[in-house]
Write a structure and sequence with these properties.
The chain is α/β, with parallel strands linked by helices. The protein is built from 6 helices and 12 strands. Helix 1 packs across helix 3.
């Protein structure tokens, strides 16, 4: 069977204001590289032969090496739309979208998402919610009914382009929600990875360093 042609969109245009550093969190050092380049290389190593587009603010355009660059937009939706426009002429069967602040996606998790996407409109990695949940009105919530969503998310390329041709809505939370709003709701839930953390606070960076030191997430 011919392997699917894959484009990877790595979204890394955020300011990372909650992180509190002088530079955006995705450009902070993480052992021998930056958070962003760890994310990019893990995606590329898991999907050899794929094409990568990195979404960056203009002042950080040099952070992606010689990879294709798309400009960041005012929202994540606009950033992904810019990347889709940048790769519109590149033949693809599947497009993955990954947060540049998630440096440790494992190859096994990435391949699970791609495999599931091949027979659905798309696929997203999820993990169980381990903390107790409570609605803001005070009512308890059954956490067994919920999953935390990670990236990379993968979608049929033709459907993702069609979904992003529709108008923006502030109700979009991720690419799967954009797809569902366009009527492409056959989204498979695949097994995520607790070590595929998103760098949000300085402590997350220290945890990621420990994971790398102990060889986690390959």
């Amino acid at each position: 069977m011919t392997p699917p042609r894959i484009i990877n969109i790595i979204v890394a245009a955020g300011s990372g204001s909650r992180f509190g550093a002088e530079i955006p969190k995705q450009f902070c050092r993480l052992t021998d590289s930056t958070v962003l380049l760890h994310a990019v290389r893990r995606i590329e190593n898991a999907l050899p032969g794929s094409h990568t587009v990195v979404v960056l603010s203009p002042q950080w355009a040099g952070q992606a090496g010689d990879r294709c660059i798309a400009p960041g937009g005012p929202t994540r939706w606009h950033s992904v739309k810019n990347a889709l426009d940048a790769c519109a002429d590149i033949p693809a069967d599947i497009i993955t979208v990954h947060d540049g602040a998630r440096p440790l996606p494992s190859s096994a998790m990435i391949r699970r998402v791609i495999t599931a996407c091949s027979s659905h409109h798309g696929a997203i990695p999820v993990i169980p919610v381990t903390d107790s949940l409570r609605h803001i009105d005070g009512h308890a919530v059954n956490r067994a009914e919920f999953r935390a969503v990670q990236t990379p998310q993968a979608f049929r390329a033709d459907l993702l382009h069609r979904a992003y041709s529709l108008p923006y809505s502030d109700t979009f939370t991720d690419d799967a929600s954009v797809m569902s709003a366009a009527g492409f709701s056959d989204i498979a839930l695949t097994e995520g990875d607790p070590m595929n953390l998103k760098i949000t606070l300085p402590l997350d960076l220290e945890i990621a360093k420990l994971y790398i030191t102990h060889g986690a997430g390959h």
